[in-house]
């Protein structure tokens, strides 16, 4: 098998963060999001990966390289013409995929645990398509299956106003080569895209078998800021503590699973309440870093209380305020103001922004 990972799009729902970085490079548990996808695919024994990227965007390639860090070979596939739907990504990858079966993995989705059993289930199923379904509170945001009386998929509808079920098709799929006939057999939707939901419906209506399994607590789409923070929390919940810090002073208190990466310093009366990941060469001084927080590399935090948040690389936070449920961009600065306001702020701060609290 091969694998095809999506890493294009513009991440409009995650602006302003995505004005200055590809959303697939946003750190989750101190790794770019796409690294988690590559790790899952490599662990499943797949060694050939195609990554779909925006035309002219080399940031993913600069970060991932040739794939040798994971024991895989990566081919970059520029999608000419912009975002034209998930099925267009498969069409764009036709030469790379050849006649091989493949895993189609949305690179901005967080999937917990191993995907190897899912891949093996597809290979033994005899199906042309194999989907993972998850019950969600807002299925209208996703592709939604209509299920028959025996539980079989009758069709899949993309982002329906009136969803035919409570399930969403999650961000991982398996296909055999017949999917290419399906892609060629569908038309562009009213949105101007080749919809992956139409591919699934085409397969079913043309005599191919599409099977599925229902997953719980296994998948998270990260399309919105709140989803991104929840995905970060899910990854950190599986964190195993490690201490590679240069300095952890005597007055510091570490609770739960805390990952201290190489060269970081935790100083003064700091409290780190895991699960938390502190990045390489970060400096934490007299701060309270709470559960489900990722602190980026070379970031400095002094005096603040930060929890359930993602703080990216080289940020500088010097305040006595309580920061919660926040995404703080690369090189952002947060400092004390000249006048006081209430504590407990929510924020999404883009690269090179400055904010006084």
TrEMBL record:
<dbReference type="InterPro" id="IPR029044">
    <property type="entry name" value="Nucleotide-diphossugar_trans"/>
</dbReference>
<protein>
    <submittedName>
        <fullName>Glucose-1-phosphate thymidylyltransferase</fullName>
    </submittedName>
</protein>
<dbReference type="InterPro" id="IPR056729">
    <property type="entry name" value="GMPPB_C"/>
</dbReference>
<feature type="domain" description="Nucleotidyl transferase">
    <location>
        <begin position="2"/>
        <end position="236"/>
    </location>
</feature>
<keyword id="KW-0808">Transferase</keyword>
<feature type="domain" description="Mannose-1-phosphate guanyltransferase C-terminal">
    <location>
        <begin position="273"/>
        <end position="335"/>
    </location>
</feature>
<dbReference type="GO" id="GO:0016740">
    <property type="term" value="F:transferase activity"/>
</dbReference>
<dbReference type="InterPro" id="IPR005835">
    <property type="entry name" value="NTP_transferase_dom"/>
</dbReference>
<dbReference type="InterPro" id="IPR005908">
    <property type="entry name" value="G1P_thy_trans_l"/>
</dbReference>
<dbReference type="Pfam" id="PF25087">
    <property type="entry name" value="GMPPB_C"/>
</dbReference>
<dbReference type="Pfam" id="PF00483">
    <property type="entry name" value="NTP_transferase"/>
</dbReference>
């Amino acid at each position: 098998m091969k694998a095809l990972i999506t890493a294009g799009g513009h991440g409009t729902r995650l602006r302003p963060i995505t004005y200055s970085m590809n959303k697939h490079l946003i750190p989750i548990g101190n790794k770019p999001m796409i690294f988690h996808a590559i790790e899952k695919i490599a662990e499943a024994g797949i060694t050939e990966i195609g990554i779909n990227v925006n035309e002219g965007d080399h940031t993913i390639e600069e970060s991932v390289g040739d794939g040798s860090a994971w024991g895989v070979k990566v081919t970059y596939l520029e999608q000419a013409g912009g975002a034209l739907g998930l099925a267009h990504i498969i069409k764009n990858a036709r030469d790379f995929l050849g006649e091989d079966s493949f895993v189609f993995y949305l690179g901005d989705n967080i999937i917990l645990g191993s995907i190897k059993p899912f891949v093996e289930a597809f290979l033994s199923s005899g199906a042309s398509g194999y989907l993972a379904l998850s019950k969600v509170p807002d299925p209208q945001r996703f592709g939604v299956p209509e299920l028959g009386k025996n539980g079989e998929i009758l069709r899949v509808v993309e982002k329906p106003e009136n969803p035919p079920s409570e399930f969403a098709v999650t961000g991982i799929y398996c296909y055999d080569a017949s999917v290419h006939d399906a892609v060629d057999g569908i038309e562009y939707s009213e949105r101007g895209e080749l919809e992956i939901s139409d591919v699934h419906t085409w397969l079913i209506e043309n005599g191919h078998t599409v099977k599925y399994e229902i997953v719980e607590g296994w998948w998270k789409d990260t399309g919105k800021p709140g989803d991104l923070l929840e995905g970060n929390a899910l990854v950190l919940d599986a964190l195993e503590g490690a201490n590679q810090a240069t300095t952890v002073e005597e007055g510091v208190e570490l609770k739960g699973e805390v990952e201290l990466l190489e060269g970081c310093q935790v100083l003064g009366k700091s409290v780190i309440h895991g699960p938390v990941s502190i990045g390489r060469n970060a400096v934490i001084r007299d701060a309270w870093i709470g559960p489900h927080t990722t602190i980026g590399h070379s970031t400095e935090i002094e005096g603040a209380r930060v929890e359930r948040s993602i703080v990216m690389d080289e940020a500088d936070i010097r305040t006595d305020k309580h920061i919660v449920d926040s995404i703080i961009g690369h090189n952002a600065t947060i400092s004390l103001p000249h006048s006081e306001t209430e504590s407990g702020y929510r924020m999404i701060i883009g690269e090179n922004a400055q904010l006084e609290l």
